[in-house]
Write a structure and sequence with these properties.
Blueprint: E1 2-7, E2 27-28, E3 31-32, H1 33-43, E4 48-53, H2 57-67, E5 72-77, H3 85-91, H4 93-96, E6 102-106, E7 109-111, H5 114-120, E8 127-131, E9 142-146, E10 149-154, E11 165-175, H6 177-192, H7 200-210, E12 216-219, E13 225-227, H8 231-241
Parallel strand pairs: 1-4, 1-6, 4-5, 8-12
Antiparallel strand pairs: 2-3, 6-11, 7-13, 8-11, 9-10, 9-11
Helix pairs in contact: 1-2, 3-6, 3-7, 6-7
Length: about 250
Amino acid sequence: MHAVILAAGVGQRLGETAAERPKSLLQFGGMSLLARHLHILRHYDVCTITVVTGYQADQIEHELSRHGHGLTIDTRHNPDYRRGSVVSLHSAADILTGDNPILLMDADVLYEHTLMKRLLTSRHENCFLLDRNFETGEEPVKLCVSNGRLIDFRKRIDKNLQFDFQGESVGFFRFAPAMAGSIAATCSRYLADNRQDEPYEEVLRDKLLDTPEAFGYEDITGAAWIEIDFPADVQLAEQHILPRITLPGT
């Protein structure tokens, strides 16, 4: 398994809360999100990691040097990090087209480590994590399920789409080598078509709609996790998520 962590974004919506740090370096319980990712991946024997950097890349490189012991870590720099996240995903195209299964992760998530176990041990070789408990609105990236199968994946779902239920995507994914390679090829097409401002989720959605039978999901409803986008998320993370989670081995 080769983990790809997307950590290139600016995090403008955090404002002064970020204090000119990448979101992945926000600290919770005296430990950055990035350091937490590395600790959890190491625990589950995912020891080959590529981090896509962009904004304040030197800070991320320094954090990797401090917490990357026992891991094989390299980086891919995205100089166009102010464009859509599809550019960041494309920056790791050489990793996606390799022979290994891929664990794709957003860097800005605080979570209990059992989520990673669920993803790594899932029977689905192409897998999403889905949480049915989420706030409605346009911000969450939603997964829609009908007859036990994923049928859409987007922030804005067509109001006419019929489904049994929906949940929020955690932002962690697992892909078999063939699917990862196909994702890389689709990223290349996006860039060739001048779609550099698209989120990478649109690429994954294309793959899902093309071959829905190839994908599955794990329902992690009730697990403790939060994506950090706004100052209010930081407060929620500190007050409600952090007290519910522990790092493996502690």
